[in-house]
Automatic annotation (TrEMBL):
This is DNA helicase PriA. SUPFAM superfamilies: RNA polymerase subunits. InterPro entries: RPABC4/Spt4.
């Protein structure tokens, strides 16, 4: 599960390796396994995740 700053949570998986993604404010959404980074908009508040 990744959790946005607005409180919204959703399960997200890496498209490259299938591992669960993680989120930190510094790095954004990234895969701890292969290092792939993802930028999406939060479907709850509409801001950049
Ligand atoms: Zn990955
Ligand atoms: Zn949000």
């Amino acid at each position: 599960m990744i959790r946005h700053e607005c409180g919204y949570e959703e399960p997200a998986y890496c498209k490259k390796c299938g591992r669960p993604l993680e989120y930190t404010e510094r790095r954004g959404i990234y895969c701890p396994n292969c290092g792939h980074r993802v930028t999406i908009l939060c479907p709850h508040c509409g801001k950049r995740w």
